[in-house]
Amino acid sequence: MNSFSVLARKEAQEIVHTWRIWVLPAMVVFFAVTGPPLARITPELLGSLTAGSQGSITLPPATFADAYGQWIKNLSQIILFAIIIMYGGMVSTEVREGTAAFVLSKPVRRSTFITAKAAAHGLFLTVAISFGTLATWLVTLLVFGDAPAGRLWGPAILLLLFALLILAFMELFSVLIPAPAGAAGAGLGLYALLAVGGAWDPLASYSPAGVPGLAAAITANQAHPSPVWPVVTGLVAAVAAVVLATLAFKRKEL
């Protein structure tokens, strides 16, 4: 077994034996299971609350698209915020506790330390988001009796790639910034910049900043630009962030 496999296995065991195995999956399951029933009753709830008043609200009956839209919204906001906060200490915590120095006292390259960590946690995010999307799909089918796959899985895969991009930058920030809170703040700043950039058509069409809006448009069956460029530039940016994290970690004193 090579050093990459050993380190990836170490990261997987840390995920399983720490709070990470509960926090993100619990949030994902909660929003995936409650989203469709909540979408179903929202029009009736608003109608009953405003009935008889001068500004009463009447919404059309909910459909599967409302449940999908709820999941995509939670995925692109609350779940991404959780990922940013969770991974603020992705590297710096092990540096501070001396774990990184101990591991690197063995015949292990620093580049392997960084890439194995990115791969293990990227796989964890992939499994969690895929499970949440599957749960949303099944619960939507039970609640509405109709759940076309393409309008859920396509946007969910786009947002999974966006989450992996955020993860890559969190690893970079965690190498550069010793305090987990500082790295999380940098991650939230990056999220805000991407959100602002997504409102400008050129960036929305050719950069990962357009991915959340693109995912929402596909779910709502609205006109949207091709996802090719946002996906390609997002993957390139994620790889670049991991490479920069590796270069910065090689220069870091442990």
Helix content class: over 70%
What is the succession of H and E elements?
A: HHHHHHHHHHH
Main sheet attributes: strand count, strand direction, barrel closure: none
Count of helical regions: 11
Please tell me what the overall shape is. Answer: elongated
Q: Low-confidence parts, pLDDT < 50 over ≥5 residues?
A: none
Span from first to last CA?
26 Å
DSSP, total strands: 0
Helix-and-strand structural type: mainly alpha
Q: Please state the CA-atom Rg, rounded to the nearest Å.
A: 20 Å
Beta content: under 5%
Q: Please, what is the average pLDDT?
A: 93
Give a short synopsis of this structure.
The chain has 254 residues and is mostly helical. Helix content is 78%, strand content 0%. The chain has eleven helices and no strands.
